[in-house]
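Colleagues,

For the teaching module next term, I've prepared a clean inverse folding example: a structure given as tokens, and then the sequence designed for it. I'd like students to try predicting residues themselves before seeing the answer, so please don't circulate the second half yet.
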């Protein structure tokens, strides 16, 4: 089944405002109109409005890096899904930095996923094992998918899964393309068991973890890998554009 790959650029907590604006206009120049892949730019929350303005009318889409599960209320510092929906169409949910640096629980990830869907945002659900969990990666992925999708009857077409082994994020130690393919195929099998074969076959599954210009082609050609979630390399417009073009061409 042909799936349109998705490449996400997760800027994390990087860029001053001027840098963000310059990066957005370089990305617009490089990537507007790219066919064969969807491109989602996820800047820090304060620059989401700038991103929405800079990318309006282009094929590039805007994503947030996190979301709160409540629609509004006394949650100082938090941003809700309905708020994000006015400046973004995507949101990353369950990134390992949220899970392990900020103590996000499985229940919270699930609540964020549901809130995002309710607000019309397309979630990128990040899953992946830590170094010490490599020997039981199937159990870890099964638990994260089960908990992430708790209470969700059908797999929505606009959910993307990002398989991101935590040990590969920001380390330069990318998973081998064969291992990444095997994990993404395993995730697809789990989705088929949890939902059904048709929706699992249609679901886009990205690989993330030290993706760079020099390795993207090896991931992009794998049959169960439908794009990438890119951290560090997404801060360089030329590198990120090369990655997006490689995915689109695969
Ligand atoms: C990420 O933050 O999701 C990520 C994959 O980062 P990096 O590409 O820097 O490893």
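(Answer key — instructors only)
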């Amino acid at each position: 089944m042909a799936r349109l790959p998705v490449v996400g650029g997760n800027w994390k907590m990087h860029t001053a405002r001027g840098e963000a604006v310059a990066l957005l206009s370089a990305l617009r120049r490089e990537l507007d109109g790219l066919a064969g892949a969807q491109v989602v730019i996820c800047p820090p929350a304060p620059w989401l409005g700038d991103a929405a303005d800079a990318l309006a009318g282009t094929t590039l889409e805007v994503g947030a890096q996190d979301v709160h599960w409540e629609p509004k209320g006394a949650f100082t510092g938090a941003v809700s899904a309905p708020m994000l929906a006015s400046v973004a169409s995507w949101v990353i949910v369950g990134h390992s930095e949220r899970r392990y640096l900020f103590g996000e629980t499985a229940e919270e990830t699930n609540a964020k996923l549901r809130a995002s869907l309710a607000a019309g945002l397309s979630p990128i659900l990040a899953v992946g094992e830590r170094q010490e969990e490599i020997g039981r990666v199937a159990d870890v992925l099964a638990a994260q998918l089960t908990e992430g999708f708790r209470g969700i009857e059908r797999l929505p077409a606009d959910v993307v899964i990002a398989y991101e082994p935590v040990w590969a994020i920001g380390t330069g130690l990318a998973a081998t393309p064969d291992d990444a393919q095997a994990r993404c195929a395993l995730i697809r099998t789990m989705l088929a068991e949890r939902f059904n074969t048709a929706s699992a076959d249609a679901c886009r599954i990205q690989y993330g973890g030290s993706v760079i210009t020099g390795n993207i082609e090896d991931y992009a050609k794998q049959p169960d890998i439908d794009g990438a979630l890119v951290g560090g390399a997404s801060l360089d417009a030329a590198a990120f554009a090369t990655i997006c073009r490689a995915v689109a061409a695969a």
